[in-house]
Fold each of these.
Amino acid sequence: MKLLVTFSRKGCKLPLIAHTVMKTGVLINVERAYIESMEGEVLIDVPDKDAALVSDTMKEAGARVKIMEDSVIRDESECVDCGACISVCPQDVLSFDDDWRLNIDGKKCILCGKCVIACPHNALSLLQ
């Protein structure tokens, strides 16, 4: 399960991921991270069965955690299934089905936003 974790240096004094791994024993896969001097945002992937434990541990350390179930949102009324988004996606989230309709596998998404920028009809957005 993907979790979007945001934190600030003021609210979270611990090395967040290391602390969480040590306390829970759950291995964390970091899929994307933006870390600045005073704040950061990390998209992590953890086993579904351990998501609540990881989330609670990070919250106790001062982070904000959001479960990411569907990352890419498609506006069906705007999407023309052109496929402009497919080639720019680094995670193969987007593909065509047998009828050449756009498919989205949101579990693979790392919230990079490249598909949103590439869409000529503004039919895609990121859930955050």
Note: Residues 72-126 form a domain with the Alpha-Beta Plaits fold (CATH 3.30.70.20).
Amino acid sequence: MNLRLIVLEILLIIDKDGISSDRVIRQVLNKYDYLENQEKRFIKRLSEGCLERRTELDYIIDKFSKTKTVTMKPQILEILRMGVYQLKYMDSVPESAVCNEAVKLATQKGFTPLKGFVNGVLRSIARNIEDIEYPDEDTYEGLSVKYSCPQWICKQLMCEQGPYNTHKILEESLKPPGIFVRTNLSRIGTDRLVERLKDEDISSERAPYLDYALRLTNIDSVERIESFLVGLFQIQDIGSMLVTQVSGIKPGDTVMDVCAAPGGKSLHALDRLNGKGHLYAFDISEKKLEMIRENAARGGYCNLEVKQADATVYLEEYEEKADVLIADLPCSGLGVMGRKNDIKYNMTPQKEESLVKLQRDILSNVSHYVKPGGTLIFSTCTIHKAENEDNVKWITENLPFETVSLDEFLPEELRCETSSKGYIQLIPGVHKCDGFFISGFKKKYE
């Protein structure tokens, strides 16, 4: 089995079809599940590395190639990116293997006339890999190349977050993300779960901020762990857990999650309801809703209604029905760049602008579903002010809601000046979690 050919196909599919990288890589690894773990780790690392470091890899290629990356055939460009990543970041791979295998790939993909070009560029890079000159880090180009992030995002972060936070955010985006899980407290206590995982030879440690959160270590996949299969915990990031944490959900409440997929917050809400009350989980994707049904069934939850629905379309039967409504809305995703390697390359300023409009359209619609005196939780996984702080201001000026302090439900170390005013921006690299924005509101009585 040619592992590099598998990686090349992954990269070409992502580039051509725009499918999320984590989904493509997961599907391919499942397809080749018979491979040794070391082989699967090689595929995963090389695929993710080429995506994560794309800007830097293209910069290096352009330094040594007369034909620039913007004009190259996609197959040749991905082969070169794979080669440069191995040369720079995978010391265990011999230089000769990198170059020879790249030439083989070019031939296999029908580019035999270009195998000399591929070989020449990679061998030239290999000879000079330690002496490549990079642009000044004090420039947007320098930031972009060092952290492999589009210049416009670097500029936006510098303008909104300042130099310190920007460097922290970009540094964190290149670190391996942790695997975090949430204990299903209606099924088992966290201490007992730790012991059970230990019995299953799974190492875990307490995660920051929340006493029911764990970080799993030295593990590639969660899906085969027995404790997961019987519904004792759910894979979920800390920032996502905090959204439900600050909602104040209690047994007996009627809860709505209006953009529910992939379902982490819905399942967390069900756990907080503990069999009393009801949850309505809406999403526009029926395929993703099926994942929520499967996860809820595994957790043993039954007080759930899953419905395919467009969150911008009014549904009269849900008027003023929710005690708590969670609106974790589509966003630019800049807070989770470390988990989704391709998101920074798929986002544009124009898409950001359109997302703000979509967020406000959704908020205008779903505000009708909240009871007077009920709670609205608005959140995103980005660090863009137009999608976050500006929306808090817009909600209070245009909808019948007022902000409420989050401090009652936040761990003390996260309480700050803004949390007492109703919102918090979590910054990757500054806080011990992904970048999330969370805000809370109460609906006014007429």
Note: Residues 137 and 143 are 5 Å apart (CA to CA).
